[in-house]
């Protein structure tokens, strides 16, 4: 019984972990127990019984001591409570046995021993139940701790991945910002190239267009010099003809007026070129759309003829009389008209180069006032725009021209100038192989 109590107590109370030094001796209690059992089998008698009781009392006292040492552990305390009556009873029996044998025959002793055993059994069951509960709680705590550790590990992993992802996104953001800066710089260069390209077209037309007023200025200046010479001779003549002097002065005045007129025309052409070439200030001013349409149609035509002397086209200018002035940025609006007209001439030139029999290139610019809008229509009978690309022509960098002949920014910039800069609309209708018509509508604003 003592060895069974020791085995159960060591396992139930986890003595090897809680009291390793005590466990070292408890593991060897089987040796004296084996000696006593051997003596009982060989010798027997009262002496062996007395040794057996002493060994049992010693084991119970050790159990009490262990219970006291582990009193904070409730099952150990209940085991000690279970052993107290039995230990006391056994010690009393050992102390009284040498002096009397009456206790051996007393029924009261049997009754007390039965009560002691019942007491010990009850509290040992309580201890065993608490041990099971504590093990269950310990397993639950262990599972919770493992789950918590798993959650913490997963959180650390997720945090690491998030940090890695954040760092990668930060790097990508920096790369995208650098790429965006490069794209913006490239876009600015392309826009400037587009402006310079349109400026080249404009300059070629201006070189031809400005020649006419300059020729008039030179011719009238030469005639005026001759008139001044005649007037000088007449004034020094002994017989002055006052009527002739008046006629010469009238002709001279008329020539000077024509010189001023054509000089103003040349100055206007130069001023338009400067407005087109420099950056727009965005300041709106009263603008004559008819004058812009007339000027840029002729400038675009002469600009193309400066590059291709063999090119000819019919120019149709249908300008609505009395068209009101509108509030616009003339330089920006001129860029739009120049781009639309230049594209129209390009389309009819390409169709002409295809060698179609009986084909006559025609470009028409018309203005009218409709529904509170000043409308400008630029139409041609050129190659037209395929249906599959018509919706893309206002997209930046999209062009139907071969590589090297267009940046794909002209129509995109024109669309932005009209829609965002002036609150108007720019639409297109086209039939492949028949022609194209761009319609520019600007809100009416009488100056």
From TrEMBL:
The chain crosses the membrane at residues 29-48, 54-70, 77-96. Pfam families: HATPase_c (PF02518). PROSITE patterns: HIS_KIN. SMART domains: HATPase_c, HisKA. The keyword Isomerase does not apply. Residues 128-189 form a coiled coil. CDD domains: HisKA (cd00082). Its EC number is 2.7.13.3. The keyword Transmembrane applies. It catalyses: ATP + protein L-histidine = ADP + protein N-phospho-L-histidine. Keywords: Coiled coil, Membrane, Phosphoprotein, Transmembrane, Transmembrane helix. Residues 205-446 form the Histidine kinase domain. This is histidine kinase. It comes from Hymenobacter ginsengisoli.
